[in-house]
Specification:
There is one protein chain. With 262 residues, the protein is α+β, with helices and mostly antiparallel strands. A hairpin with a 4-residue loop joins strand 4 and strand 5. It is built from 10 helices and 12 strands. This is Lipoprotein.
Length: 262
């Protein structure tokens, strides 16, 4: 498995972006997994650039469970294999708002899971859904990148897919006593191999991309192992946030163990 975190770097290096990964847990181990990002700063970069074609405003919410229910009679007429592919989309929700006038671009995809292992199906569901707005959302990047960076052609075609595969870079455990999440050995090796030794903490662009992980629990937090983590105000969650330098310099930056009050 390639290093998905660094692939996200290569996709979003050229514009300020806030990436957010959130997992919500229920007592029985079910919950929801969400990936979202705010590229509003990128929209601002395009202001006054008359060479860019105008982008139509987008305000979309797709709840696949609702869609499948509405189309169930038609779906029942499809071959069984096609029915199974569509049914796999049921836990997925997609929301996107893009407006040049408001300099706003936000995308969120969430996936309900019955057990942690189901999170691995998130990327497959996103790919199978073939959401056209995701492709449209990347289009504003064209013409905004500096010439010496290779322009839009330098954006990797698989960058968006890698964003949705971030969960594969971590081993995650959750029960009534504790929660832990650690970068996998494979992802660790990839990050060390691809580490940018020229990146410095005071480089002006290290804050152009910030990555946040948020975990919400049905239990109150007692102890947190990671000193970078912040306990949420209700004591039922934690969050970690890093810029590009912190992520590049410390592959274990997001490793965390949480002990619950019982």
């Amino acid at each position: 498995m390639r290093n998905t975190i660094l692939c996200v770097f290569s996709l979003l290096l050229f514009a300020s972006c806030q990436i957010r990964e959130e997992i919500r847990f229920n007592e029985d181990g079910s919950g929801s997994y969400e990936v979202g990002f705010d590229m509003s700063e990128m929209m601002k970069m395009g202001e006054g650039n008359d060479s860019l074609p105008p982008q139509a405003a987008i305000d979309t919410l797709i709840i696949f469970a609702t869609f499948l229910e509405e189309k169930k009679d038609s779906i029942a007429q499809l071959p069984k294999a096609e029915q199974e592919k569509l049914e796999a989309l049921r836990p997925l929700r997609f929301a996107m708002k893009m407006s040049e006038e408001e300099n706003q671009m936000n995308i969120r995809l969430s996936y309900a899971f019955d057990k942690l292992e189901d999170i691995s199906k998130f990327a497959e569901a996103v790919e199978a859904a073939d959401i056209k707005e995701l492709d449209q959302g990347v289009n504003p990047m064209e013409g905004m990148m500096p010439a010496d960076a290779g322009g839009a052609d330098s954006v990797p075609k698989n960058g968006m897919e890698d964003l949705f595969k971030m969960a594969e870079s971590f081993d995650t455990e959750f029960n009534k006593k504790r929660f832990s999440r650690k970068v996998t050995e494979k992802a660790m090796a990839d990050m060390l191999q691809k580490k940018d030794t020229t990146l410095k903490a005071d480089d002006p662009f290290v804050d152009m991309m910030r990555f946040k992980q948020v975990y919400r629990f049905p239990f109150k937090v007692k102890n947190v192992s990671n000193p970078n983590a912040k306990i949420l105000s209700d004591f039922k969650g934690v969050e970690l946030e890093a810029n590009m330098y912190e992520m590049n310099n410390d592959p274990e930056y997001f490793n965390i163990e949480v002990e619950f009050e019982r």
